Amino acid sequence: MPTAYLGPSGSFTEAALAGLQVRPGEAVPYPGVRQALDAVRSGAADAAVVPWENSVEGAVTASVDALAHSGDLCITGETLLPVQFALAVPPGGSLSSVHRILTHPHAHAQCRTWIDTHLPHADFLTSSSTAQAARDVANPGNSRVDTAAIASPNTLRRYGLEVIAENIGARPDAVTRFVKVARPNKRLAPPTGADRSTMVVPLAGRVSDLHDVLHEFVRTSVPLTSVLSRPSGTGFGGYSFLLECEGHIDEPPVGSVVASLRRRNARTVFLGSYPRATPTLTPAPAPNSPLTNSLTGSLTPRGETL
Questions:
Q1: Furthest C-alpha separation in the chain
Q2: pLDDT per position as a tens digit, 233-258
Q3: In whole angstroms, what is the distance from residue 200 CA to residue 241 CA?
Q4: pLDDT in tens, 128-184
Q5: What is the CA radius of gyration of the chain?
Q6: 281 pLDDT above the threshold of 90
Q7: Rounded to an integer, what distance in angstroms lies between the CA atom of residue 292 and that of residue 255?
Q8: Which domains does the chain have, with CATH numbers?
Q9: How remote is the C-alpha of 194 from its chain's centroid?
Q10: For labelling alongside 87, which of 134, 159, 162, 177 has CA 20 to 30 A away?
């Protein structure tokens, strides 16, 4: 059965598939995060790979919101991918002709400093992914040379666009974390000794609630690596907290935390324990070289990220 991923072809998510042991011939692109996850829910796909967090802009909220409250899917793995951005136009365009920029919001935010300096009056148009932005700008039906796309250099050239500026991101060391999501199995993969666990805890808004939740991690000495608040959708002032920590639920400290949080709030959602990706920088390849690395957590300087 195929693995769904945030497409189209050429997306950073596609480049992240190798780090999660997904072969290209086994993957099917979907136009949005929710569509990719719904393919798993419906049984059309065995798993889905979606962007989860960026080292510059933080959580990819479209992915977090689509997964956090359902409880019917779980995270089974993660990988890290470095991201680089370039600006490109259709043939015949130039920097002076650009009045509109199409890209994903995370990419736009990471390139905002460059845009404010070189294209301060350009309008920003949102795309579901950077690869989709490149595809739309390169569409033969698009006769406008005033629209540029921001994506990875390889993807922009793949769609026949002319790259007019490279390395426009604010941080050359930017990295995006991608997660693999599947339907829950009765048995989780066993602990590896280097795992991450993810859970969602709804809170009513009392000051003591968050304190009590965080105290569970202090009490058990479980390293808490991420705390993210998101509106619960139940009314103003209601929030859910996405919590990530080191360790595996089958290990007593993490298991104790999850059990305690569930006793406090029956709506606590456990999203999985899975091997934690470790940044492993690799030498930069020659331009357009087909560098890939199948090791989870390896950083492959090629491709696209959202």
A1: 63
A2: 766 767 889 999 999 999 999 999 99
A3: 6
A4: 999 999 999 998 777 678 999 999 999 999 999 999 999 999 998 999 999 999 998
A5: 20
A6: no
A7: 36
A8: 1-82+174-187+278-306 (3.40.190.10), 86-166 (3.40.190.10), 195-275 (3.30.70.260)
A9: 21
A10: 177
* Structure tokens given for 161: 């666009």
Task: Report whether 76 contacts 47 (CB < 8 A).
Answer: yes
pLDDT digits (tens, 9 = 90+) for 171-221: 989 999 999 999 988 678 899 999 999 999 988 766 678 889 999 999 999
The residue written with tokens 């692109």 in the block is: 29
Could you give the C-alpha distances from 214 to 206, 217, 244, in angstroms and in order? 14, 5, 11
Residue 244 has which token pair? 């990530």
Residue 6 CA to residue 188 CA, distance in Å, equals 25
Enter the pTM of the model.
0.86
Alpha carbon distance 280, 12 (integer Å)? 18
Handedness of CA 7, 9, 12, 15 (dihedral sign): positive
Amino acid, res. 57:
E
Residue 271: Cβ-neighbour burial (10 angstroms; 0-12, 13-18, 19+): buried
Contact 276, 78 (CB under 8 A): yes
Structure tokens at 243: 């919590």
